[in-house]
Amino acid sequence: MIRVIIHGCNGRMGRVVSGILSESNDMEAVAGIDVTGVQRDTYPVYSDIFECDVEADVIIDFASVAAVDRLLAYGVEKNLAIVLCTTGLSEDQNNRVKEASGKIPLLKSANMSLGINTVVKLLQQAAPVLADAGFDIEIVEKHHNQKKDAPSGTALLLADAINETMNDKYEYVYDRSKVNEKRGKNELGISAVRGGSIVGEHEVIFAGLDEVIEIKHTAFSRSIFANGAIQAAKFLAGRSAGVYSMADAINSDRKI
Ligand SMILES: NC(=O)C1=CN([C@@H]2O[C@H](COP(=O)(O)OP(=O)(O)OC[C@H]3O[C@@H](n4cnc5c(N)ncnc54)[C@H](OP(=O)(O)O)[C@@H]3O)[C@@H](O)[C@H]2O)C=CC1
Ligand SMILES: O=C(O)C1=N[C@H](C(=O)O)C[C@H](O)C1
């Protein structure tokens, strides 16, 4: 049995992860961490991560940026693998993630779904061809009205995937209302929409002369992220220290 601590267990994502693990034959939730400290399932829930002294193999995190520093410190202290799914981390926090990965196995991804990770590959093929032909690139993301960070971690992940294949030539533009000039060729626009219960939608628009290509991913339920995180946890448990990617977990033969 792979023993999992769910960080943010009472949140929207934590509850979905918890539900899937309760049906698993080879993985189990052994503890949860959530500011509320409310126990909803069979495992104990701690409001302070350092109060949790339950033996485990891996932490699955869907919580809050405010909780990330203590999560990393706890993982390092207890020598626990971490699947880090919280988005909106600062540059300093991303550096601390890298530092921690020198000591523990760590997989961080802004999107755990197979679909988005496949879109990344498509973009890396399409972007060099279309950008060289003069196409402008814009990303539009849509999420529910409870989401705190904007733009989404996935929008940035997609933009970075494109930019890496283009020698980092793009400058990201988030708010055109402040720009009173025509669009520059090296701009990559990123726009965020927030409303209702939209689970997650990402559209990458390649706009050329007289033709437009749109690559769009729509999440209809949170289980695609939860299943991806559980697959990542299964992949990560027992590995040596280092940074791993969702692509590593998807290509692994340790399936859920
Ligand atoms: N990588 C991916 O594929 C995905 C990433 N996400 C990201 O995951 C994160 C969580 O999303 P979601 O579940 O919708 O958010 P929620 O706000 O529903 O859940 C987060 C939970 O974490 C709790 N929490 C807040 N601070 C702490 C803390 N210091 N210690 C422990 N628990 C804490 C919250 O408690 P309280 O409500 O009381 O503050 C809440 O119960 C977001 O950053 C989101 O962007 C989401 C979906 C997919
Ligand atoms: O907060 C969410 O809900 C989501 N967050 C992630 C992000 O910021 O990209 C992933 C997914 O789109 C849902």
From TrEMBL:
One of its GO terms (molecular function) is oxidoreductase activity, acting on CH or CH2 groups, NAD or NADP as acceptor. Pathway: Amino-acid biosynthesis; L-lysine biosynthesis via DAP pathway; (S)-tetrahydrodipicolinate from L-aspartate: step 4/4. It is found in: Cytoplasm. NADP(+) binds at residue 40. The keyword Amino-acid biosynthesis applies. Residues 2-112 form the Dihydrodipicolinate reductase N-terminal domain. NAD(+) binds at residues 8-13, 85-87, 109-112. Its EC number is 1.17.1.8. Keywords: Amino-acid biosynthesis, Cytoplasm, Diaminopimelate biosynthesis, Lysine biosynthesis, NAD, NADP, Oxidoreductase. Catalyzes the conversion of 4-hydroxy-tetrahydrodipicolinate (HTPA) to tetrahydrodipicolinate. This is 4-hydroxy-tetrahydrodipicolinate reductase. It comes from Parasporobacterium paucivorans DSM 15970.
